[in-house]
Amino acid sequence: MGAYEDSYRRSLADPDGFWLEAASAISWTRSPIRGLDDSAAPLYRWFSDGELNTSYNALDRHVESGAGERSALIYDSPVTGTTRTFTYAELRDRVAVFAGALRSVGVGKGDRVIVYMPMIPEAVIAMLACARLGAIHSVVFGGFAPKELAARIDDATPKVIVAASCGIEPTRVVEYKPIVDSALELAGHQPDHTILLQRENAPGKLGERDLDWETLISDARPVDPVPVAATDPLYVLYTSGTTGKPKGVVRDNGGHAVALAWSMRAVYDIGPGDVWWTASDVGWVVGHSYIVYAPLLVGATTVLYEGKPVGTPDAGAFWRVISEHHVKALFTAPTALRAIKKVDPDAAELAKYDLGAFSTLFLAGERLDPETYHWAHDKLGVPVVDHWWQTETGWPIAANPRGLEALPTKPGSATVPLPGWNVQILDADGTVLPAGEEGAIAIKLPLPPGALPTLWGDDARYILSYLSQYDGYYLTGDGGYIDADGYIFVMGRTDDVINVAGHRLSTGSMEAVLAAHPAVAECAVIGVHDALKGQLPRGFVVLKAGVEISSEALQAELVAAVRRDIGPVAAFREVSVVDALPKTRSGKILRKTMRGIADGREVQIPSTIEDPTVLDTLRPILRHED
Ligand code: COA
Ligand code: AMP
């Protein structure tokens, strides 16, 4: 039996033994005796008798063990022309002081703090400072509009917001302060303060309740880490569900630290002193887990990159960062490689850089199409590892566990389920399907440490959304199959979640924006295939009878409305005015059928269709043949 199979079997046969052993990689203020706590099943908890501080584990303990002068974080920002390295000692000190600043304005254990910042060191400092105090951070991605930020403020009810005055996109400076102010006008809940980090590209206007980051830290005293229960929340991260209301995924302290530290070694083969780079954003789960927490938990050096794969300044940007900082492994989304490939198909930029230290490319966030896999593999000459996970799971469900055992790769597959994840393919009735048959991907409960224990303040919604479809299973929302060798093929979402440039979005929330327009009687938004971004949203609207508005004017208003209410990240640019939408006899819009036709697939028309002629009329529009 290979090392992978041995670990996998052991993790399912003896989860307590497996994960308590992994827990020894973490420093606890009270070591857990117990692994899984099933007393409130199906709400499972891990290490419920343990106590620790995540910030201590990420920073202090490395300093205490003599690694204080090792690089913890390399900030590389082509958009500002800055590169800065923070040692572990320096980062710990800054985090301790900012934690003191937060405490000085009343933030303590269990309080929520919203962080609305771009990819700058202060975002990492703010997250770790919350962790140090036992406060719960909720980072909101900068590409979201005020209304989305307001929805998160109302759900998380933060004591303070920590924001930067602006983010820098290749084509423009995005002023964050007015976005925060508008969100606060929309929100019912009002935090005590906004702490603003001023950036010179666009300083923000300080209002009555606003505090300046620099002034606040100049008076602050460093604070020590506050021990918390392993089951206390470390953060809440909102993600798109099938409805417009985002889901507040809760992450605990103990299970999270154990699982991430374990994954760094077993999946990514990264340890103390290795330079590791995740090119994502701290606003997404990939950023939380693998820009901030996991690399620091294991004493590695993490690269924080404020730039894009192309245009900052060119398609060689990723290769420059790898070569300049001696990056051992990079983790990004396939869309980033497709962006590079589009501009530099022969990867001519590669010749300018020495990638001697580079050993592995990890990709996730969306399906890795075989063409991109082959391109990356051929050009870079290193293993390219597709792996599959979700905001909810916090770390990969399936991967090629390079640190345990490098398994053969199959293009199109995320390889095998990792220890702790009992993955099954189910049919509509919940019957386990045999190898090769496609169905819903579900995970048998309990989930391993690090996976979400619940949704913020809403156990009922957690159970309803994830655990109620199939008794005893967590529903991933993805469809796919497992082949005869046990390899997982994730084929796409089975719900209304779409993936645009690696960003998870809800078509339901876009439909809500379209439906709110006074001219719109009904609407549908579907995610269609896009060669660069993986998927793009497309809207279809039916006008109310008697409404007089030109298609062009309506289209422009709807595109602007989605940008205003959801944000530029939705990349919503295309909407068609149609006579009718295809429906079943019970009135359900046939979105899946529409998606299939738009993507050029042969689709079977459901026998329950109400009026097939509606689809006939729509077909050329869906296929852009109109
Ligand atoms: N703050 C404010 N606005 C943002 C933003 C942020 N943090 N991130 C993106 N936006 C804006 C962009 O400026 C763009 O606005 P525009 O419509 O005015 O041009 C819009 O949101 C869409 O952005 P994006 O999806 O990033 O598209 P792009 O065309 O600018 O870049 C890629 C395409 C593929 C290069 C880019 O998406 C990328 O690097 N993706 C990497 C994937 C990734 O990080 N995934 C996270 C999970 S692993
Ligand atoms: P997020 O919660 O933003 O990480 O998005 C999770 C979703 O992205 C999953 O449910 C999948 O639909 C998709 N996804 C992530 N990684 C992969 C992958 N390697 N292959 C296929 N789909 C993926």
TrEMBL record:
Signal peptide per UniProt: none
Record domain AMP-dependent synthetase/ligase: where:
67-444
Q: Which stretches make up the Acetyl-coenzyme A synthetase N-terminal domain?
A: 4-58
Gene Ontology MF annotations: propionate-CoA ligase activity
Q: Which InterPro entries match?
A: ACAS_N, AMP-bd_C, AMP-bd_C_sf, AMP-binding_CS, AMP-dep_synth/lig_dom, ANL_N_sf
- Residue ranges annotated as coiled coil are none
Origin superkingdom = Bacteria
AMP-binding enzyme C-terminal domain residues: 510-588
Cellular component terms, GO, for this chain's entry?
Answer: intracellular organelle lumen
Q: Which Pfam families match?
A: ACAS_N (PF16177), AMP-binding (PF00501), AMP-binding_C (PF13193)
The protein's matches in PANTHER family, at most eight in alphabetical order, are given as:
ACYL-COA SYNTHETASE (PTHR43347), ACYL-COA SYNTHETASE SHORT-CHAIN FAMILY MEMBER 3, MITOCHONDRIAL (PTHR43347:SF3)
Q: What NCBIfam families does the entry give?
A: PRK00174.1
Q: Return the similarity comment.
A: Belongs to the ATP-dependent AMP-binding enzyme family.
Name of protein: Propionyl-CoA synthetase
